[in-house]
Amino acid sequence: QIRLMESGGGSVQAGASLRLSCTVSGYRDSGLYLWTWFRRVPGKEREGVASMLVGSQTTYYSDSVAGRFLISRADDFSTMSLQMYNLKPEDSAVYFCAVGLGGQWWRDENYDFWGQGTQVTVNA
Questions:
Q1: CB 98 within 8 A of CB 2
Q2: How far apart are CA 16 and CA 80, in angstroms?
Q3: Is 95 left (phi over 0), alpha (psi -120 to 50) or beta?
Q4: CA 8, CA 64: separation in Å to the nearest integer?
Q5: Which residues pair with 118 in a beta bridge?
Q6: pLDDT average, residue stretch 16-32
Q7: I need a labelling partner for 40 at 20 to 30 A (CA). Which of 6, 69, 99, 101 fits?
Q8: pLDDT-derived band at 110, boundaries 50, 70, 90
């Protein structure tokens, strides 16, 4: 059973940086290849922001975060991270990590396992 747990959220000023981590347990034998960060603002659908094909380390980013966010994983597949730079108030959301088999990375229905989320608040 795969378990995911996010950490690192908080409240920061616009322009600041923040690093989110996702502890991944039970992954190694699962065959699940797509690791992704989503975020959700109340009243809106969950949005995929950054994704990685863990075997090739190919990465994908939404237009709203490209050039500001970096997704990475530990060599032992124990953690997934999201380094966020130059944060903006519109980045405020609950951030989730997710693991799935593949497909269109921005579609949340392609993911089988989710963390509980961590709040990021960016103040103007």
A1: no
A2: 21
A3: beta
A4: 21
A5: 95
A6: 87
A7: 101
A8: very high
